[in-house]
Fold:
Amino acid sequence: QVHVEESGGGLVQPGGSLSLSCAASGTIFSIYAMGWYRQAPGKQRELVAAFTNSGTTPTYSDSVKGRFTISGDNAKNTVYLQMNSLKPDDTGVYYCHAVGKSSTTMRTGDYWGQGTQVTVSS
Structure:
């Protein structure tokens, strides 16, 4: 089984910074994509930033471009999100997502972390 776990998050004032970390572990054959999504209260989950299809060029939501930076370590199946110039609209639960193949089933699936709360408020 593939397990995804986030860390980081918390409460920060507008204009501040936070960083999130995520690691995929377990019976992994290969990870093809990793990234971050978020869900604000009363809204649908949305993409924040991600490396997709084993690519090296990340995709960002227009709302975070220039403020957030995603990075990763393919060898360690980890991904990070550095969030700067945070705004109240960035508040929400941030989820790590991975697309990968399990070495036990040899099937590709979507895997989600449990989510971590980010609150931007004065």
